[in-house]
TrEMBL record:
Classification via SMART domains: YajC
Annotated protein name in UniProt: UPF0092 membrane protein YrbF
Keyword Metal-binding: no
Membrane-crossing residue ranges in chain numbering: 12-34
Domain of life: Bacteria
UniProt family annotation: Belongs to the YajC family.
UniProt keyword Transport, yes or no: yes
Compartments it resides in: Cell membrane
Membrane topology recorded in Swiss-Prot or TrEMBL: Single-pass membrane protein
InterPro entries: Preprotein_translocase_YajC
C-alpha cells in the first residue's frame, strides 16, 4: 500500500511539472508578443479616428498627401495641386507632423 501512495504522489507531481512550463511559456508570449501588439493596434485605431481635413499623411504604400475629404471608411488625399486620390482609411500608415514638413 505504501508503494501505491508513493506512485500516486509522484504522478500528480509529474502533471504539475508538465503544466507549469506551459503556463510560464504562455505568460512570456503574452507579455512579449500579444500585449505589445494589442497596444500598437489600439494606438493605430486612435490615430485613424483622430484624422481630420488638412492632416498630412503617408499611406502604407509610401504615398504622401494631404487629406481633402474624409468619411468613416474613405479618405481622399491631395497629392499635388491637381491630383486627388481615394484610399480606404485603413490604408493610412501614419500622420506626419506639420512642423516636420515646414
Amino acid at each position: 500500500m505504501h508503494m501505491f501512495q508513493y506512485a500516486a504522489a509522484q504522478g500528480g507531481n509529474g502533471i504539475v511539472g508538465i503544466i507549469v512550463p506551459f503556463v510560464i511559456m504562455f505568460a512570456v508570449f503574452y507579455f512579449l508578443l500579444i500585449r505589445p501588439q494589442q497596444k500598437k493596434q489600439k494606438n493605430r485605431n486612435s490615430m485613424l479616428r483622430e484624422l481630420k481635413k488638412g492632416d498630412k499623411i503617408v499611406t502604407i504604400g509610401g504615398l504622401h498627401g494631404t487629406i481633402v475629404e474624409l468619411t468613416n471608411d474613405i479618405v481622399v488625399i491631395r497629392v499635388n495641386d491637381v491630383t486627388k486620390m481615394t484610399f480606404d482609411r485603413s490604408a493610412i500608415s501614419h500622420s506626419v507632423a506639420s512642423s516636420a514638413t515646414e
